[in-house]
Amino acid sequence: MPRSWEGFTRLQAALASLARSGWMMRGIPSAIAESVASHIASAALLAIELAWEAKRRGVEASPERAAALAVVHDVAEAWVGDIPRPAGIEGKEEAEMQAVESSMLSQAAKDFYREFAEGNSVEAVIARIAERLATYSMALHYKSLGYPVDDIIESSLRDAIDKARRAGLEEALRGMAERLGIPLS
Description:
Layout: H1 5-17, H2 21-25, H3 36-56, H4 63-72, H5 77-80, H6 92-101, H7 107-118, H8 122-144, H9 150-166, H10 170-180
Helix pairs in contact: 3-4, 3-8, 3-10, 4-7, 4-8, 7-8, 8-9, 9-10
């Protein structure tokens, strides 16, 4: 991969133009399907909000770090594409990790990507919850437009709540969701 500005521009364009495949598989036209870049932005914003809510409740968490982890969480899709969960492609995570490791990104960004993938810090867990909540929220939007996304609504909400419960962040998740008007049922 190039180490020039052109290389970053291609990364940026790929993230902005790549529609998330789960939406496309459910008949959502590419013109209104959420892009990977849009998903990343939503996840980062929710990570900040959730980390602040957790911090307000006494959890040692850095909202800035949680947001940074959410920002890089899907960056590999610019190089390998958005492979949907149901595809069950063997080696997906390894291919994504290899793409990030061989990219022009800084070592710090690569470390953040690895930390998110491993989920080995409170901020990584918060970013993972935020990622699932971003998917859930977008699924609610598509459902309101009449698209068949009930499976995504159910699985992403269940994943977000389960992750929050296991990490002792369920109250923070519920508080943040209530404040932002995101229904958790």
